[in-house]
Fold:
Amino acid sequence: MWWQEKKREIIMVIHFKSAFENLSEKDVDEFIKLNKNKLIGSSIFTSNNSITSKIVRFVEKKKLNRDGFIPSHTGSIIEYNNNIYVFDMKPLRASITLLKNYLLNTKDDFCIVIRDYDLDSKMFSANIAYHIGEFYPFLSAISSVFSKRNTKYRTHCSELHLRELQKQGLFLDINAEITPLELLDVLTNE
Structure:
């Protein structure tokens, strides 16, 4: 249910969907309240049965010869209007969902990687929130896994998350043109 791994003297906490499946609304509220400071700036990696998700996961599985959980999307956890949200750079427009509602209602498979580094969470949240409502076409989402290059439509989900961390001096040795699975590996020290 709750998984911790110690690497490089850092404890990385990852919460999979199964950890939330039988929790009440009160339990989810308590989880968010207890972890609020570390949740902001953390990431949520998702996969689902959409065509886009299936294509991204298929390509990543073949390219990296991987089994197990393969995400097709990276959501960024932000604070916005005094609430905790998941920001999604997904087609057709970037949007936000209350983290509580997401955890209680999503059909997606997911894992939350709680950050283990210091971060200016206000700056991170403001910079990510700037993109709410931004246009993001399906073709750009699918092409990201093949070319990993920015398009005229801005940055892909995992790139946006990593670039905001890099603005704060983190993970500077990593090329920000990164897929969700590659970012998951970076953040979990794989």
